[in-house]
């Protein structure tokens, strides 16, 4: 049984579908030029060769093929360089996050210092902020 996104298929159903498709293609191939039919024949032979290769087992049943654990990109490196190459992106990401955090903290601190400087240089006395009539003072105070 073969499962696909369209449902479960048996080899017999697939064989019938393949036969119908081959018949339809063969009927349509009668009206093609010699050059097109030759190109189709070569493509068909190549497809069959690839299909044969994909069906062949990679190793005999008693043998297991094991990888070396190295990717092709890192195959020429020494073991310590390989580890460094694998850890470097993570280290760069952590360093970038730390730098972003420090920059945002500095920006927040500068913004707070700017607000404090504006409050201290304003003509409004600091005791006015705690006065219950402060809202009334803001309504009646002349704008600068």
TrEMBL record:
It comes from the Bacteria. InterPro entries: DUF3619. It holds the Pfam family DUF3619. This is DUF3619 family protein. The lineage of its organism: Bacteria, Pseudomonadati, Pseudomonadota, Betaproteobacteria, Burkholderiales.
